[in-house]
Write a structure and sequence with these properties.
257 residues, alpha/beta, Metallo-beta-lactamase, Chain A, seven-stranded mixed beta sheet, 17 strands, MBL fold metallo-hydrolase, Metallo-B-lactamas
């Protein structure tokens, strides 16, 4: 069965591999605090159907409790270590199987192995207080090896930690006109692609949410990261096929046999 990847917007994707549906950083809302969904319809109900959901870190646009609540009873959710202590709302999700992981841990889900890997990002729920939960990426191994980077900056051991993969789901933008440290913009994401050297890539985490009232402020920062990633990847990693998806679109990338 071919591996299929669907991008629902922001960092939310479905990866179908070996008959298992993997959902990344579920976010199914029109508005989140000061952010509004400006492009793409809300994902349909089928987007919340998953065997396992991966949560990369505790920021509210990646760990969104109301979106997790939409998952079916018994769905396995992999969260960074310390998430339940840091996010009290998770205690209400008694219908889900919440499992905390940290870099290096592996979890088997049907015919898949999900491995947590490090990310260079602030893993706290709010930008104050001690660092108690790591930010994570995940490598999903089945018919393909798919790297979901979550939110991360470049770091020296990235290629070593991720290992050999077929597909990389890389963040290339954000939800505001400026990206702080420990993020990938289109150029840095292309550099990450050159380091990791997958067969193909899908840019995510751009062109979906934007601060309310800032529609006219540097709008190119909202619209262009995907196209810029395609351009920079052609320069830095020309051997990698980049699939630029619209919201709700899917691709079946080529994988090594």
């Amino acid at each position: 069965m071919p591996v299929e990847i669907t991008w629902w917007g922001h960092a939310t994707c479905t990866v179908e591999d070996s008959g298992i549906r993997v959902l990344t950083d579920p976010l199914f809302t029109r508005r989140l605090v000061h952010l509004r969904r400006r492009r793409g319809a809300l994902p349909p109900s089928e987007a919340a159907v998953a065997d396992v959901a991966l949560v990369s870190h505790l920021h509210a646009d990646h760990l969104h409790v109301p979106s997790l609540a939409r998952l079916a009873p018994g769905t396995l959710v992999l969260l960074p270590r310390g998430a339940r202590r840091a996010v009290p709302g998770l205690r209400r999700l008694t219908h889900l199987r919440l499992t905390e992981v940290e870099p290096g841990m592996r979890v088997e889900v049907g015919g898949l192995v999900v491995r947590a890997v490090p990310a260079s990002h602030d893993g706290r729920r709010i930008p104050v207080g001690p660092h108690r939960s790591p930010a994570l990426g995940f490598v999903v191994s089945g018919e393909a090896r798919t790297y979901f980077a979550g939110d991360t900056g470049l770091f020296d051991s990235m290629a070593e930690e991720v290992g050999e993969v077929d597909v990389a789901l890389l963040p290339v933008g954000g939800w505001g006109p400026y990206l702080g440290p420990h993020h990938l913009d289109a150029g840095r994401a292309a550099e990450a692609l050159a380091r990791i050297a997958p067969r193909s890539a899908v840019p995510v985490h751009y062109g979906t949410y934007w601060p309310i009232g800032m529609d006219a402020v540097r709008p190119h920062e909202f619209h262009t990261p995907g196209d810029e990633f395609v351009r920079r990847s052609a320069e830095l990693a020309p051997e990698v096929t980049v699939h630029l998806l619209g919201h709700g679109e899917s691709v079946r990338p080529e994988v090594a046999r």
